[in-house]
Amino acid sequence: MNQHPSIQLHATRREFFGRTANGIGAAALANMLAQTGLALDPGNRPHSGNPGADPTQGARLGGLPGLPHFAPKARRVIALIQNGAPSHADLFDWKPELAKMHGQPVPEHFIAGKRFSTMTGQADGKLMLAPIEPFKQRGRSGAWVSDMLPYTASIADELTFVKGMHTDAVNHAPAISFLLSGAQIPGRPSLGSWMNYGIGSEVEDLPNFIVMTSVSKNTTCGQIFYDFYWGNGFLPSKHQGVKFRGSGDPVLYLSNPSGMSRQMRRDWLDDLAQLNQRQLDDFGDPEIATRIAQYEMAFKMQASVPALIDLSDEPQSVLDMYGPGVEEPGTFAHNCLLARRLAERGVGFTQLMHAGWDQHNSLTTEFYTQCRDTDQASAALVMDLKQRGMLDDTLVIWGGEFGRTPFIQGEFNNRARWGRDHHPYAYTMWMAGAGLKPGLSYGQTDELAMNVVHDPVHIHDFQATILHLLGINHEKLTYRFQGRQFRLTDVHGRVVHELIA
Q1: For residue 290, what are the contacts with CB-CB under 8 A and spacing of at least 6?
Q2: CB-side exposure of 36: number of CA atoms within 13 Å?
Q3: Of the given ranges (14-18, 47-51, 65-69, 279-283), which has the lowest mean pLDDT?
Q4: Interacting residues of 450 by C-beta distance below 8 A, sequence separation 6+
Q5: CA dihedral of 99, 103, 104, 108, whole degrees rounded to 10
Q6: Is the pTM of this model over 0.90?
Q7: Are 110 and 405 in contact (CB under 8 A)?
Q8: Nearest-5° Cα angle at 203, 264 to 291
Q9: d(Cα 371, Cα 366) in Å, to the nearest integer?
Q10: From residue 329, how far is each of 371, 406, 407 by CA, in Å?
Q11: Domains, the chain, ranges and CATH?
């Protein structure tokens, strides 16, 4: 029986691309693994020959030709993502009027036309809730920070507060996805993947995009850490974030099996690479090249990771600075110290995610635990980087996916169960280092911390600014997929130059 013509056509294409163009696969592998850059089709090369590229970046592995577009202020990023959304009204956005209106119904004109989560539903009649602890102005800058965060308050002059943040999403997973990938629906590349794809890596024996997660003990507010929070989306899978575990080997199968020496592992990988190379030569699939590169990276990590996680060379003064739990794998403090050690080794993007900030009914209980578990280590990371001369070219980001409602969730007369619901219309994030203006508080909300009234910063603006600090024009870093050019900021975003010194 004759084959269907479409099957014959498919076979002919396969024969053409897979067997008569062996040189394509070899060239693709050579370019992907070479230190000079990554081969791209014409649709993905808007940057070649850019005269503004920084000549000091020539030592990077991979990356696109012509990037960075201009001299970067940041060589690396450490993102301290606070899953669940810290309450801006209780931590950074002091509003005397909110304190005065404690227990009074929210004025209608503040919430007209607004969408809140299903837990709030209609916000009509909700009672305003004052900050649960006092605020004070801190340092020379006079930035308002709550007593809930004494260590963060002590370094306020090092921080750049973005108080006009707002987002499009009202629930956690879509909002975190939006913050990290520019889209609420999973499937787009995350910020770390875009950075890795665009400007490549400075390190050979560790992944350039590493993720660590933590949750406060005994919390009832933990969120799920979905893999798409550090996914590569439609970018080649070599750009996906590598998650370090909080116990045992940071990466599974890092240790050799019993009876296998390092030389045996080396010989085994060399033989496997030859088999994969044959497959790559036949079909030119870039994912095969990724597999080869990842096996090689895993072999190198067997030597680099044990030294990374061995804290015996850290002075006691440094361990004390990060606070209790710093020597316990899986804690936020431990992850912050590892983030600094990764930065020292040249890792470009480290993403720490700490869950538990979802205080729907635990604002007077678990919220204190969240602050205690993250405050000291976050401040220590900033100061540790500064003391080592690394803060000038390291961008540190702290914040969640949205804010919390200035009005109460729960019964007003039951203080032990006070809470706040999701609030996408206004919240605060802070940044530090990498050429930012320290001590600046940018943006302003209304008198109840409900809506942004001056200098709003949308999520896409925030992303565009991060890329700018890395020397990347966010409108030019694109990838062709499903017939069009995609970018982190979609078709939006402006660089907030007012934040940059």
Answers
A1: 32, 236, 237, 238
A2: 6
A3: 47-51
A4: 106, 110, 111, 406, 423, 425, 426
A5: 90
A6: no
A7: no
A8: 50
A9: 9
A10: 19, 35, 37
A11: 1-34+253-310 (no CATH), 53-247+329-499 (3.40.720)
Contact by Cβ (8 Å): 298, 250: no
What residues have CB less than 8 Å from 187, skipping those under 6 apart? 228, 231, 233, 234
Residue type, 343: A
- Alpha-carbon distance of 395 to 189, in angstroms, equals 20
Residues 465-477: pLDDT tens digits? 999 999 999 999 9
The first and second tokens of residue 491, run together, are 């078709």
- 């499009």: which residue's tokens? 168
Tokens of residue 390, six digits: 């690394």
Name every residue whose Cβ is closer than 8 Å to that of residue 222 and which is 6 or more positions away in sequence: 84, 215, 355, 356
Which amino acid would we find at residue 173?
A
Q: Are residues 86 and 400 in contact, defined by beta-carbon separation less than 8 angstroms?
A: yes
If you write DSSP's letter for every residue of 190-203 in order, what string do you get?
PHHHHHHHHH-BS-
Query: What CA–CA distances, in Å, run from 426 to 13, 86, 421?
Result: 53, 12, 13
d(CA 229, CA 336): 19
Q: Where are the alpha helices (DSSP H) in 182-309?
A: 191-199, 262-283, 286-309
242 to each of 224, 347, 415, 419, how far by Cα in Å?
Answer: 17, 12, 42, 35
Name the residue type at position 290.
T
* 267 compared with 343, residue with greater pLDDT: 343
**What b/e sequence results for 326-360 when a residue is b if at least 16 CB atoms lie within 10 Å of its CB, and e otherwise?**
beebbbbbbbbbbbbbbbeebbbbbbbbbbbbbbb
Q: In angstroms, rounded to a whole number, what is the distance separating the alpha carbons of residues 251 and 241? A: 12
Higher-scoring residue by pLDDT: 37, 156: 156
**Residue 408 contacts residue 151 (beta carbons within 8 Å):** no
- For residues 7 and 13, the answer to whether their CB atoms sit within 8 Å is no
Contact 33, 5 (CB under 8 A): no
Q: Extract the tokens encoding 162.
A: 């973005």
DSSP code string of 340-399: HHHHHTT-SEEEEEEE----SS-TTTHHHHHHHHHHHHHHHHHHHHHHTT-GGGEEEEEE
Q: 271 exposed, middle or buried (CB, 10 Å; 0-12, 13-18, 19+)? A: exposed
pLDDT of residue 200: 96
Residue 352 contacts residue 399 (beta carbons within 8 Å):
no
